[in-house]
Write a structure and sequence with these properties.
The protein is an alpha/beta fold and 346 residues long. Helices cover 40% and strands 19% of the residues. The protein has twelve helices and 14 strands. The strands form three sheets. Strands 2-1-3-4-5 form a five-stranded mixed β-sheet, with helices on both faces. Helix 3 packs across helix 9, helix 6 runs parallel beside helix 7 and helix 6 packs across helix 9. It is globular and about 60 Å long.
Length: 346
C-alpha cells in the first residue's frame, strides 16, 4: 500500500476537508480537463538525498553518539528510508542490524504486532541497546528497549519529553490533547509551558510553525524537533533519541521505570450523529468551572486525575479517556463518564 499525501504551498499538510474534496473530485471525475499548455510538470530536485544527509548530520551531535558506540536493530519496513539511513549510521559509528532494509512498494505489510515480536526477539538475542521500527513512510517510530520490551506510544512520548527537557533548554513544548498528564508533570519540573493541540499531524506542524515551541511530541510515535524540519521524521527522531541517551548516560529500560505509573482507560460510546451536539452542550455545562481545555472535545481535571471526552469526526461515537496514577481510579472515571455520555443522549 502506498500513501499519497497532499501538501499546501507552505509545506504543511493539506487540511482534511480540502484533501477529502480532492479525493471526491478525483473519484467522481468531476473536474475540468486542462489543455495541453496548462498541464503542470513534475520537478525532481538534484542531490536531494545528499542535501538531506548533510543537513541531518549538522542537526545532531555526531561525536556524542559515536563515542557511545550504540548497537541497535532497525526494521525499515521496506520503506524509502533504506536508501539513506545506512549512510547516516555509518557516520555515527553505530553497529546496526537492519531488517527489511530495501525499498519494495509491492511487499505486503506485515502486522505491526508480528514485526515488533520479531524485532524484540532479535534485540534480545544480539544484546542490542535498542530496537526501532520505522513506519513505511519513515514518519513514525516504535521503540523496543534492551530487554526486548516494546515501549507504548504514550510511554515513549514521556521518555522523549523527559530526555529532551533534561538535555536542552526550552520554554514551551506542544503535545496532542490526549497525551498523558505525565507530560505536564515533567514540564513543570523544568518550568516549561505545555500547549495542547488537536490529535493530528497538521495541528502539530501548525504549533511548531506558529506557536514558538521548541519540541512537538506525538501520541502515535511522531516527533518534531527544532532546527531541522517542519514535519515528523522517524529517522531524525531515532537518531535524536540516541543522542539524548548518550548525553544523559542512560538507557530506555532504566528510564521507563520512572514513568510506568500512569494508567489510562478508554471507551468508545455509541452516539447517533443527531445527538452529538446535545451531548457536547451538556458536556460543556457539566465541566463549567472545572480546569478544562476545549480542544477536540473537552479535557478536564477530576481531582488529581484527567478525563477527555470527544466526538469522533468520522463515526457515530464518543471517545471517553480517563487517566490516573491509580488503576482503579482510571477505571472508575472511565466507566462513570461512559454512562454519563449515554444518559446525555436521552
Amino acid at each position: 500500500m502506498t500513501d499519497m499525501i497532499f501538501l499546501s504551498p507552505d509545506g504543511m499538510d493539506l487540511p482534511t476537508r480540502k484533501a477529502r474534496s480532492i479525493e471526491l473530485l478525483f473519484a467522481r471525475e468531476d473536474f475540468r480537463r486542462a489543455s495541453m499548455d496548462k498541464v503542470g510538470q513534475l520537478d525532481y530536485p538534484t542531490r536531494i538525498l545528499e542535501s538531506y544527509r548533510a543537513d541531518f548530520l549538522k542537526a545532531v551531535d555526531v561525536e556524542s553518539i559515536a563515542e557511545h558506540e550504540f548497537k541497535l536493530v532497525i526494521d525499515i519496513s521496506h520503506g524509502g528510508a533504506s536508501e539513506i539511513f545506512g549512510g547516516i549510521f555509518a557516520a555515527l559509528h553505530c553497529e546496526v542490524i537492519s531488517l527489511n532494509a530495501y525499498p519494495d512498494p509491492s511487499a505486503e505489510a506485515e502486522s505491526l504486532d508480528h514485526s515488533l515480536g520479531q524485532l524484540s526477539s532479535i534485540v534480545k538475542s544480539v544484546r542490542a541497546d535498542v530496537g526501532i521500527h520505522l513506519s513505511r513512510g519513515a514518519e513514525k517510530i516504535v521503540v523496543v528497549d534492551r530487554n526486548g520490551e516494546v515501549i507504548s506510544d504514550q510511554l515513549l512520548l514521556l521518555l522523549v519529553t523527559s530526555l529532551f527537557l533534561s538535555t536542552y533548554p526550552a520554554k514551551k513544548i506542544a503535545v496532542p490533547v490526549m497525551a498523558s498528564m505525565g507530560v505536564d508533570q515533567i514540564a513543570e519540573q523544568y518550568g516549561v509551558g505545555v500547549l495542547r493541540v488537536r490529535n493530528d499531524h497538521l495541528a502539530m506542524m501548525q504549533a511548531f510553525k506558529s506557536e514558538d515551541v521548541d519540541f512537538v511530541g506525538g501520541t502515535r510515535g511522531g516527533f518534531i524537533f527544532s532546527k531541522f524540519q517542519l514535519g515528523a521524521d522517524g529517522m531524525f527522531a531515532s537518531v535524536k533519541l540516541l543522542e539524548m541517551l548518550a548525553k544523559k548516560h542512560t538507557d530506555l529500560a532504566t528510564l521507563r521505570r520512572e514513568y510506568e505509573k500512569y494508567f489510562r482507560v478508554h471507551h468508545q460510546v455509541p452516539c447517533p450523529w443527531s445527538k452529538k451536539g446535545q451531548v457536547m452542550r451538556l458536556l460543556m455545562t457539566h465541566t463549567e468551572g472545572k480546569r478544562r481545555q476545549l480542544v477536540d472535545g473537552a479535557r478536564f481535571q477530576e481531582d488529581a486525575n484527567w478525563v477527555w471526552i470527544a466526538p469522533n469526526r468520522n463515526e457515530a461515537y464518543f471517545t471517553v479517556l480517563a487517566e490516573s496514577e491509580r488503576k482503579d481510579q482510571a477505571e472508575h472515571l472511565a466507566s462513570d463518564y461512559r454512562d454519563q455520555v449515554l444518559r446525555w443522549q436521552e
